[in-house]
Amino acid sequence: MGIQLDVVAAYPINDEMERVLGLAEAVGEPVRVTFMWEGGQETEHAVLVPAATLALWEHWAPTAYPTSDAGDEHQAATEKPKLAHPAEFGPFTLFRRRVGGRTAVARGGAVVAELLNPDEAHWLEEQARNVRQGFMDPKQRAAFEEFLARQPSLDDQ
After folding, report:
1. What is the pTM of this model?
2. How far is residue 45's CA from residue 114's CA, in Å, rounded to a whole number?
3. How far is it, in rounded angstroms, from Cα 111 to Cα 34?
4. H-helix or E-strand containing 16?
5. DSSP code of residue 71
6. Which of 19, 43, 46, 47 could be disulfide-bonded to 115 (CB atoms 3.0-4.6 Å)?
7. At 71, is the pLDDT very low, low, confident or very high (cuts 50, 70, 90)?
8. Number of other residues whose CB lies within 10 A of the CB of residue 123
9. Exposed/middle/buried for 149, CB within 10 Å: 0-12, 13-18, 19+?
10. Virtual CA dihedral for 51, 76, 118, 22, nearest 10 degrees?
11. Residue 61 CB coordination number (10 Å)
12. Measured between alpha carbons, how far is 132 from 154 in angstroms, rounded to an integer?
């Protein structure tokens, strides 16, 4: 990830979520977020990825992130996440997806970011980078083929 920002949000006290979401939107880079739940429960880690960055990663990633591991003891295969009302934080609304565990963040009716599991965010970024580095657009490919055609053969050297 380009810019590494770590944010701790005592969720949902005051306008902390609104500030974190605004920060991710302003920098245009993924932001690592640690949610500290009321009552001293376990903390939850996520990566807030701006919508444009996520769209780019998903465009270049060849497959979807594997959603279930055989050794995943946190959630049984038959257990479905509970449906909940969208949570509102200032101008932002969070929509928790029942499948995949992502949370879409919308403002003014448009999705501006998504909260992803840190492992999924890292996997998507790596896959996108690996595929993108091996890709040549048609103009680049034609220029490279022309360059290779102008090179003397190994026999001539």
Report:
1. 0.67
2. 13
3. 21
4. helix 16-27
5. T
6. 46
7. very low
8. 17
9. exposed
10. 40
11. 19
12. 30
